[in-house]
Amino acid sequence: MSALLDVKGIETFYGPSQALFGVDLEVGEGEVVALMGRNGMGKTTTISSICGLEKYRSGDVVFKGEDLKTLPSHKIARLGIGLVPEGRRCFPNLTVYENLIAAARTGDWTLDRVSTLFPRLKERFSQYANTLSGGEQQMLAVGRALMTNPDLLILDEATEGLAPVIRQEIWQAVRSLKETGQSILIVDKTLSELLPIADHCIILEKGTTVWKGKPEELTRDIENRYLGV
Ligand code: ATP
After folding, report:
1. Where do the structural domains in the chain lie, given as residue ranges?
2. What are the pLDDT digits (tens) for 178-226?
């Protein structure tokens, strides 16, 4: 059976400077895949390339059997990829409610379901997004992506810079999404939270996939070589 998302050998440039030199990754239906690697190794560029925010020059990205190469980002989103970008971008001058419905597509994810996942958001429906705490904005970013009813949810550093108690709420939400069978591609530095929920791991080093495997196959040696500081 073919994967939900199949990325093969993509190469992406920023102007003349090459950032990706051949990234391979797959996400199967219902899987959580952890995309790992030290700072600057190409995780965000890979995600941007998948979502059409940066164009890859060679290689292939196939999602639900469709080649994404020539599609603009809004069409890729409409095909069913929900992105929670690094730095949680919400519309600051819209309320929580307006942010959530702005991106909504019909499906299992509704305002009620997002409110159950993040009760804090429901209490703040009429508040402007720019008055939320960082953690609440992150919940809103996840809620917005879910409201698009994505087949694949992509989370780029969703817990970065948040207070421990809020991080726990986000991780709890990710675990419950996994239980519902949501397919997820996730980047996060907290391996102690990430590895227990990951079905597969991909490690990038200097813009190339250097290791793929299950979390239990990730040895101390590989961790030191590719993930250590
Ligand atoms: P981090 O964890 O720090 O976000 P990352 O693994 O996501 O790192 P990328 O942000 O994808 O890595 O960066 C990969 C390479 O591309 C780096 O060398 C980085 O300096 C470069 N790069 C990223 N964004 C740009 C940009 N907008 N213009 C030029 N070079 C960039």
Report:
1. 5-86+153-226
2. 999 999 999 999 999 999 999 999 999 999 999 999 999 999 999 999 9
- CA 63 to chain centroid, in Å, comes to 15
Cα of 39 vs centre of ligand 1, distance in Å, is 8
Ligand 1 proximity of 40 Cβ (cutoff 6 Å): yes
Those residues with Cβ within 8 angstroms of residue 157's Cβ, 6 or more apart along the chain or in another chain: 86, 187, 188, 189
In the reported structure, the alpha carbon of residue 122 is separated from the centroid of ligand 1 by a whole-number distance in angstroms of 35
Judge if the beta carbon of residue 189 lies within 6 A of ligand 1. Answer: no
5-86+153-226: CATH topology is Rossmann fold (3.40.50)
**Cα–Cα dist 222/208, whole Å:** 15
Kind and range of the H or E element at 139?
Answer: helix 134-147
> Which pTM does this prediction carry?
0.95
CA distances to 111, 117, 181, 197 from 160, rounded to whole Å, are: 25, 19, 24, 17
What is the distance in A from the centroid of ligand 1 to the CA of 187?
14
